[in-house]
């Protein structure tokens, strides 16, 4: 078995069939590479590329000659559209061969070609070249063939190794896992989209004043300072037409002094000392301590509208509809 190295795979994978009849490229008549002594002695005009009745794939073949290598590859590509690969054999390495990364194999833009390129030891290469020439010129080898115009050819098959086995069980498990991940992803996306639409609907109804925020169970719903500052401050009077008749602050239980105490009036008309009610509304609750009415304006939208709030609002709404 020849000692062969791969110089360029051209996308060929392990297990791919790379085979064909050995073929030396047809050089141009004025090519200086035709005078190399290692080339086959048979007439190139009578080579395989000229036989129109043969439809076999071919494997290109030539010695490694730095000044001619590109021409060998170009001619093999141009005169044989069905070329499956190309072999170079070394002239100065008989019993060994340089590695694929060795600078010995430099000078060729391998990626310019769409077929695999291999290197071979000089010993095997010279043997194949001798057989190639012998079979191309000696028709006595074909005594048992009725077609006297035929020629014997060398058939070459490149062993690219066993194909990578399909990990049947692992492949199946990966497919199942991918399907599950896809289903979970789509389910999660659908749920997030549904929850987003419900939160948006709840915000819209809260801003329209259709929802009782306190009934939603939002913990520590308080009154922001910017809203609290809009509640009027006025001197305490005993005018019966001015809100409820309160004589004292229900938080500190101190009596108001007529025209001497400044009170803050909530939207429900209850009044308190500013120092008492401001801290209560800002830190404890948005409800009036006396009547439990919300001090928040209609349409106020708190930041605590979560998915849990949405679920509670839907539950309360269904309870009312029963």
TrEMBL record:
GO terms for molecular function: ubiquitin protein ligase activity; zinc ion binding. The chain crosses the membrane at residues 169-194. InterPro entries: RING_finger_E3_ligase, Znf_RING, Znf_RING/FYVE/PHD. Signal peptide: none annotated. It holds the Pfam family zf-RING_2. It comes from the Eukaryota. Residues 249-292 form the RING-type domain. Gene3D superfamilies: Zinc/RING finger domain, C3HC4 (zinc finger). GO terms for biological process: ubiquitin-dependent protein catabolic process. One of its GO terms (cellular component) is nucleus. This is RING-type domain-containing protein. It comes from Sphaerosporella brunnea. The keyword Metal-binding applies.
